[in-house]
Write a structure and sequence with these properties.
Elements lengths: L2 E5 L3 H13 L3 E5 L2 H11 L3 E5 L7 H10 L5 E6 L3 H13 L3 E7 L4 H9 L20 H9 L3 E9 L5 E12 L3 E3 L1 H11 L2 H17 L8 E5 L10 H12 L6 E6 H6 L1 H13 L3 E7 L6 H6 L4 E4 L1 H5 L5 H16 L3 E4 L5 H10 L3 E2 L10 H9 L13
Length: about 400
């Protein structure tokens, strides 16, 4: 049974959180004092933790810091009556410390919002209401067996221009384990990096994705985006290996975009610059993913040979409700265009956001409003007859 440990100095709120959690099948433990909190944390090893930021002695941010130092693996929910910007800052601080912060719960809150956060870790099967078995500990033989046994498959999320012209797909990896079912990428990608198997996974993803695109009857302007790991760009032979894959499937490198995160690009800038320059020389496009969430300097970014900037979904998804997010998205689009790069927005989930991005001059859009990631056959069918929304003329000012 999952266990929720709550630390909150308001007994009424803590009681309500506990009742809702019990209704979701949780065993609940409540305290209003940090010494008791850490004692119960050590004794009971809760699967989930709810932390109120505004505690009288040791505040929630300090508790998050201590949990990070302890390498706590519980799912964390941050609660507070403070403003959203403070909550967002605490969420980012927790995640920067490696904590599994599932989200924020502003007070007062709706029970449905708390239920959603308690289910967000994917441990609860929404169809049956029962908890799935724990995720397995992944080792090198498991990963190699997944590659050899074709347990891994690629799905493809369409990308379009704001005028609703199909311009590409992003390839995303899925692992269907014969015993544990679907394993999320977040559960095995970092393990593959640590165990030295990430190059095999990347080349597998590239081969499967580019082979799929090469077999589609579509315009040459339709491209494929594939994610690279920070470990991938440590390999000086990466450019040659990807170019060889393109030759094998008879696909031009001009139709391939390689995505890497801002943090990955800046981990070792000197080595990254060598590898990225070689990739561009061979004709590949380069995208800096999740832009705005890292800490790289503008001077470093200007040195890197990127061809597009991908705006993080956190800013895109909150643009309608947050003036700060709109300001950031607008600034990134302008920055991209001033550097002669494309601006790509991910996480577009509704018509209003799509219209606003079009009015803003964003070059490429992807997200559930356009299409969810599709299995290979479904993506082929969608490409032959894409079902795309029709946008009205007005956008968000």
């Amino acid at each position: 049974m999952p266990r929720l440990l709550i630390i909150d100095d308001d007994p009424g709120v803590a009681h309500i959180i506990g009742l809702i959690a019990e209704g979701q099948g949780f065993q609940v433990d409540i305290t209003d004092e940090h010494t008791a909190f850490f004692k119960r944390l050590a004794e009971h090893q809760p699967s989930h933790i709810a932390i109120d930021l505004m505690m009288p002695e040791l505040d929630g941010v300090e508790i998050l810091r201590m949990l990070g130092d302890m390498k706590c693996r519980a799912e964390i929910i941050i609660t507070s009556g403070m403003g959203k910007r403070v909550l967002d800052a605490a969420l980012r601080a927790g995640r920067e410390r490696g904590l599994k912060v599932r989200g924020i719960l502003p007070k007062p809150f709706l029970p449905a919002n708390l239920r959603a956060l308690l289910q967000a870790n994917g441990a609860l099967d929404e169809a049956s209401g029962r908890f799935r078995r724990p995720m397995p500990e992944i080792d090198r033989p498991m990963l190699l067996a997944a590659i050899a046994g074709k347990q891994l498959r690629m799905v493809f999320q369409p990308k379009v221009t704001p005028q609703m012209r199909v311009c590409g797909f992003e390839a995303l990896m899925r692992w269907h384990h014969p015993e544990y079912g679907e394993l999320p990428p977040a559960h095995f990608i970092t393990v593959a990096e640590r165990l030295g198997v990430i190059e095999e996974l990347t080349l597998y993803a590239l081969r499967a994705s580019l082979d799929w695109l090469s077999r589609q009857r579509c315009d040459d302007s339709v491209s494929m985006s594939v994610n690279l790991s920070v470990k991938d760009i440590e390999s000086v032979g990466l450019a040659d290996a990807i170019a060889e894959t393109c030759r094998e499937v008879n696909l031009s490198p001009l139709r391939v975009t390689l995505e890497l995160t801002e943090t990955a690009a800046m981990t070792n800038p000197a080595d990254a610059l060598d590898v990225l320059a070689r990739l561009r020389m061979k004709g590949f496009s380069l995208s800096i993913d999740d832009f705005g969430t890292g800490y790289s300097s503008m001077s470093q970014l200007a040195r890197m040979p990127f061809s597009e900037i991908k705006i993080d979904r956190a800013f895109v998804g909150s643009a309608l409700d947050s003036k700060e997010s709109r300001t950031i998205v607008r600034a990134i689009v302008e920055l991209a265009h001033n550097l002669e790069l494309k601006a790509v927005a991910e996480g577009v989930e509704n018509e209003a956001t799509c219209s606003w991005l079009r009015d803003l001059g964003c070059d490429v859009i992807q997200g559930y409003y356009i299409s969810r990631p599709l299995e290979a056959d479904a993506a082929s069918a969608w490409l032959r007859s894409p079902v795309l929304p029709t946008l009205p003329g007005a956008g968000l000012a």
